[in-house]
């Protein structure tokens, strides 16, 4: 009895010492989303992906023509291809594959200023699907239900940068059954299918790593934002761009010393973010932006002002606990909302952000690291397995309408 | 072609309901087909030309007068639908100040698509501005509390793991400028984020006046009186201060205070980074001290003295005392104060007209681990002498280096002396200058005199020195002494309405008490 008491006491002491020792390090908290603690899952062994061999006019030639595709925020499609080519989940035997990937760089048609033109994308996609459906039997087997495509453009597979036109077009009819891996996410929107996987936009990881500042630099900026409030080229009067939310932020808080907001392009942008407590991530022409990625990497709590937005890996990451969501109609009360957050909640959010698995999940590093965005995409695909038997069509059955869509899309590419 | 594409895209951006199938295609190389589109295009072009001519968008007014049903000047607005059928090409937009409501159209069902009803609408929205878009002070305070909490957490996580107590030793005595200097040091110490013990040694015995100065600081203070009076000469003052500091070190030893001992003279200026930097010391550290050799004479400042020696030294450089390092960042020597340029101009007596010079190495530039002073500390290094052993022999100790047998163990702090974290300054009024005790004027002043000329009833007292500098100009002396009086006479002006009486004669008596 006495020895048992001694052992118990020793264990208690040990537990205290271990806890104190653990507190010495940076305090982080485990991330568990609605899918569980899945950020650290390893997809290897849980799924097999077959990569189609497409002629280089769909991928390599586009990249050769314009290497800027590797650095803009839609570069995820290119890096995903490269990752899959050398990943252990890749299989060379399509019969045993669970998922099929089509390496098509759909947003690599850039204007001189670097913005992607989506006008030819539907035709390019159509021609790629015609190719794979005629050369391999796997498309026709399920009409694409076990295929996935990376479409990182503004409104995903709606292939337009203007929201109204994108809504009109809707998702390309041929992609209706496929799983879309896209950056755009908004609830009850045409351009977001059920079962799509939202990913973060591409932000260059090396550039962010080189701008890290010492962790003990005190965070002295309360709210930080750099970017446009009025898009004078396309929407000079305001009210259209960002649904008026960014303009409202400017008009309400330009005099507020707690808000460090302006349209400057400082060279210390990344360093400033690391000195801020809250970073605004309002919508622009599309609801997503790389600011979310930057805020997460630099430990600044993201303040998301975009109604009904679906954030990256929403089933794995509990964004409600990490960021602050502000409805667009509540923007004039943004300072009240932010200052009324209890300090403990702020500290908890910072602990969640400090979790390295959270930071890795937002990045596309070269070479791939465990837990990074590539692996989260694979995890998401693995969570959708096993495929439902209904996706397999009976021979001769056709669901997709190959002639649907605007007439211009039917022209060959 | 480009123009029509531009106009067409403009059309398409604004028109939601005008969706004849396939007519207004998104593809840029299709041409305009339907006649109604052409009609609207022509109308739009016409309106553009008229606006160009008039210089503003008159269409806004037209639609305001024709079509608005309830024009409100409400600052808050709900997102209104852009597509009422009549406002195809020329939608009324919201200015940041006013806003107009339109009868909501039936468009969301078409725009939102078939996948459920979305409350997010595409199109033009109002810019919401609240009536008083300025910060609320209560919220600002809360924000600062959040910032402070976050920074405290950051310090806990990434800052120093075991911050040591800072033991500050300040010699002082009651004089005119004491309140000024001591309050400055006190405020600096109140900002230090570490535990602090402030040992205040007062020459002439512990007085209530000094105690009242730091009573409200909230710091842990040890107020000690030193029986000797502070002499009037700078030389004597330096000696006495050294002895007072030694006395304080003995107190540290007696009480076995654990921490880092630093010497904060009451007229010095300390930066906050200093206190962070001294936490890095292991046994003995040395810092760079910026020397502000200042003359109380307004005509001749140290700058002009240095200018005369332009050939010899760099005139713009501030003299700095501290450790000198070689290229491998090890202690190689010392920068000391060169008093040669100031020969003959230096002040001898407190309140003198000359330039007040520091010693070769000031005490303020050194920090010690308090364990060096203890009688029996476990890991006291062998190069440290015992405090008791010396102090009986010679009381003429210039700097804390007396404790060391070997000077090379001193650690240079502040990136090897390159950062100046504190400044040495000696500004004092004349020893016989008068100031109200406790800086409280009691009883209230009753003479009201204009501040320009202050006929002072007392004759300026005899100076104790025989320095030729001082006995020169009588006027300058009067001016000098009147300098200390102007704050009072300014006060008398404001109390003009009160009854007047002769100024109390307690002051001269008090003055003689001081010296």
TrEMBL record, chain A:
GO terms for biological process: glucuronoxylan biosynthetic process; plant-type secondary cell wall biogenesis. Belongs to the glycosyltransferase 47 family. This is Exostosin GT47 domain-containing protein. Residues 46-341 form the Exostosin GT47 domain. GO terms for molecular function: glycosyltransferase activity. It is a single-pass type II membrane protein. Keywords: Glycosyltransferase, Golgi apparatus, Signal, Signal-anchor, Transferase, Transmembrane. InterPro entries: Exostosin, Exostosin_GT47. Residues 1-22 form the signal peptide. It holds the Pfam family Exostosin_GT47. It comes from the Eukaryota. Coiled coil: none annotated.
From TrEMBL, chain B:
The chain crosses the membrane at residues 37-56. Coiled coil: none annotated. Residues 300-319, 455-515 are annotated as: Disordered. It is a single-pass type II membrane protein. Its main location: Golgi. One of its GO terms (cellular component) is Golgi membrane. Its EC number is 2.4.-.-. Gene3D superfamilies: Spore Coat Polysaccharide Biosynthesis Protein SpsA, Chain A. One of its GO terms (molecular function) is xylosyltransferase activity. Keywords: Cell wall biogenesis/degradation, Glycoprotein, Glycosyltransferase, Golgi apparatus, Membrane, Signal-anchor, Transferase, Transmembrane, Transmembrane helix. Residues 480-499 have a biased composition (Basic residues). It is found in: Golgi apparatus membrane. InterPro entries: Glyco_trans_43 (IPR005027), Nucleotide-diphossugar_trans (IPR029044). One of its GO terms (biological process) is plant-type secondary cell wall biogenesis. Involved in the synthesis of glucuronoxylan hemicellulose in secondary cell walls. Belongs to the glycosyltransferase 43 family. PANTHER family: BETA-1,4-XYLOSYLTRANSFERASE IRX14H-RELATED, GALACTOSYLGALACTOSYLXYLOSYLPROTEIN 3-BETA-GLUCURONOSYLTRANSFERASE BETA-1,3-GLUCURONYLTRANSFERASE. This is Glycosyltransferases. It comes from Carya illinoinensis (Pecan).
